[in-house]
Design brief:
Two copies of one chain form a homodimer.
Chain A: E1 6-9, H1 11-15, H2 25-37, E2 42-47, H3 60-66, E3 74-79, H4 82-90, E4 95-101, H5 104-111, H6 115-129, E5 135-141, H7 154-167, E6 171-175, H8 183-197, E7 202-205, H9 213-222, E8 227-230, H10 250-259, H11 268-276, H12 278-282, H13 290-293
Parallel strand pairs in A: 1-2, 1-8, 2-3, 3-4, 4-5, 5-6, 6-7, 7-8
Chain lengths: ~300, ~300
């Protein structure tokens, strides 16, 4: 059996949420259906947050209503609080992804409440969801560092993971929210979390803010992680770094995996086609490299010989 | 003793050579002197190639003449043939870097001769240089794949390394000339080459053409490699991929190394300042990320609290 790497596509959530343009609902639906057809087993479609806070994703319910659900694809929505969870259940999501930061400052800035208050809300959400067949994933944001507080103690991260597990979630994501992680730190944290969460339930969410995204994937994979978030074209960004790259790029990650002999179940050529269409949707160039350079196997004709 | 990673700066050679603008000689000298002051033990300054083939580097001799040589910095020049070696010796370089591709098609396209003819010329060069105190490094270009021929057999790469060693060179570089390498391939080749070349004599030269540059560094480091080429700002490029990134980015690499606890001897803040000045020199944005996002330790003030 070949080794496997599972990619969850997050471009229409973590990517679009930071774009100043509103991508039309029909375009979102068309893109997500095409991503599902390219083979994703998991797609984070949108976010049930306040439409005032994130107008780019104010059409989350309409997007879910318009999708052609592909058997074998889990359609996920990010949910910050009980009100969002209600809306997500009404929209018939397959899974909700709860998010709270380990950094108190980041959670207060991002969610308007303490991490403890976020976790209390999550307990109520899990109670509501229980028995509905809807999955629950929970994300530790700023797990590898906070842009306001800096390093976060590993024990605090582990404690949040254990509180998620005590709630009975199906999976846990460790998120490098603003791209502060490094490979040694990643290997260390994955080794600490895997024994309790297990490879089937652990997702790593990296940003390429400082160019280390795929190096961190490599370190996490070597430490036993198998599930990774990524955004088509490397969409996404960092509110503190104008011009910085965003999430790790799906097609670059998939190209790396395939070159290393890891199976993803994904059609890389189809992903490259979809990535090349992104500038039309968002109105600017995107950071992904493989869509510009082609796959390593896409060879070029030899140029005419030079005189010596 | 802390672990160490040695970075050879190549922006003024591998970066500038592909720029359509001619960077003024005085600006080149100022930049190289500033790079030396930032702590580089090795800088590839320029290339003694045909000025007609690479007009951007036609001032190689003037640049060498204008440098303020810093004790402890080795000033290197790329040299493709005996004529270039003569010019390099006249310019009082500390070390010459010979380059031939393992791919016959690439060497004919790039150098106008077969790899065998390149190696014959190198033998004459080494004879000339012997006893002069000038060092000799030799590079295997397209060691991880050729954009015309595709994969190159490992045995062919190893044979070229052994021919370099038989010439009596001081060091060998394995170059991923157009960014086709992947981490598994890198680990495998480094493991094969290290026993004969040794970590002190082996340099890895990666391009970030498909986003894997720093992942490849990580894999090479884990396999025992310690010396890496990198270009300030991620300058450089690929003639087959307009818009693709170039060499791995010096300041991103150094940030990764320092975050991992590896010593480089380099002043990262000074490198970031120099990288931020590059768009003025080359007339366009550059791909490096840390110069945009800041170091992970460069924290931000917490924003005002949101209402829940």
């Amino acid at each position: 059996m070949s080794e496997t790497l599972i990619v969850q596509e997050v471009a229409t959530r973590d990517g679009f949420q930071i774009e100043p343009v509103f991508v039309e609902t029909a375009e979102k639906i068309r893109l997500i259906d095409a991503l599902a057809a390219a083979g994703f087993s998991r797609i984070e479609v949108s976010s049930f947050v306040s439409p005032k806070a994130v107008p780019a994703l104010s059409d989350a319910a309409e997007v879910f209503a318009g999708l052609t659900r592909r058997p074998g694809t889990v359609y996920v929505a990010l949910v910050p609080n009980p009100r969002g969870a209600e809306r997500a259940l009404q929209a018939k999501v397959d899974e909700i992804n709860l998010v709270a930061s380990v950094s108190e400052t980041h959670n207060r800035a991002n969610m308007g409440m303490t991490p403890a208050a976020s976790l209390e809300g999550f307990a109520r959400i899990v109670e509501t969801v229980r028995g509905s067949g809807v999955g629950v994933n929970a994300t530790v944001a700023t797990a590898f560092g906070c842009p306001f507080e800096g390093d976060q103690p590993v024990d605090k991260v582990l404690a949040q993971v254990e509180r998620y597990r005590a709630l009975g979630v199906d999976g846990v994501t460790l998120a490098d929210t603003t791209g502060m992680a490094n490979p040694r730190q990643v290997a260390h944290l994955v080794e600490r979390v895997l024994p309790s969460v297990g490879a089937a339930g652990l997702t790593l969410h990296f940003h390429n803010t400082r160019g280390l995204g795929l190096a961190n994937v490599l370190a996490a994979y070597q430490a036993g992680a198998r599930r990774f978030d990524a955004a088509l074209g490397g969409l996404g960004g960092c509110p503190f770094a104008p011009g910085a790259t965003g999430n790790i790029c799906t097609e670059d990650l998939v190209s790396m995996a395939h070159e290393m002999g890891l199976a993803t179940g994904l059609d890389l050529a189809a992903l490259i086609d979809l990535a090349r269409d992104l500038p039309r949707l968002v109105g600017h160039d995107v950071p992904g490299q493989v869509a510009k350079a082609g796959r390593p196997c896409d060879l070029h004709p030899a140029p005419p010989l030079k005189a010596a």
